[in-house]
Specification:
The protein has a domain of about 110 residues: Hotdog Thioesterase (Thiol Ester Dehydrase, Chain A, Roll). About 25% of the residues lie in helices and about 40% in strands. A hairpin with a 7-residue loop joins strand 7 and strand 8.
């Protein structure tokens, strides 16, 4: 269940708090192939299951940037914004890919509101760390400190 934010004050009050975890998502080869097609990254470790079987990961793995892009899929499951006039992605402070995400693995996002800063016009800039966990693995597939700006009614 997402954490509900209705105002700038809600963000400021919840700095340093966990936001919970999302549902699990299976990373399927079809998603990896579509990402490869969209980005032009057709490297065999991502799109050639036969060759990847004997490669360094024992099978195909998701692109790191595909895993990062799924942070945008997980964020709305972690944060529910009410009374919002507008929100924009502002960027990332830090992104890391500690472990490969094998095709067929289940992943989820785990969130933490690292910090929030008031902006003029009833706005807030938030930094939410999303850790993309891989089910059964000790290291995450991605850790991203996302920056968003929200303006409330």
């Amino acid at each position: 269940m997402p954490t509900i934010f209705r105002s700038m004050a809600d963000f400021l009050d919840r700095q340093g708090q966990p936001l919970g975890a999302t549902d699990w998502l299976t990373v399927e080869q079809s998603r990896v192939n579509l990402f490869a097609e969209a980005t032009g990254d057709q490297q065999w470790i991502h799109v050639n299951p036969e060759r990847a079987k004997v490669g360094p990961f024992g099978g195909c793995i998701a692109h790191g940037y595909l895993t990062l892009s799924l942070v945008n899929f997980f964020l709305p499951q972690l944060v529910l914004l009410e009374q919002l006039a507008m929100g924009v992605n502002y960027g990332c402070d830090k992104v890391r890919f500690p472990a490969p995400v094998p095709v067929g693995a289940r992943i989820r996002g785990v969130g933490e509101l690292l910090r929030a800063e008031a902006l003029p016009g009833n706005g807030v800039q938030s930094v939410v760390r999303v850790t993309v966990e891989i089910e059964g693995q000790p290291k995450p597939g991605c850790v991203a400190d996302t920056i968003s700006r929200y303006f409330f009614i």
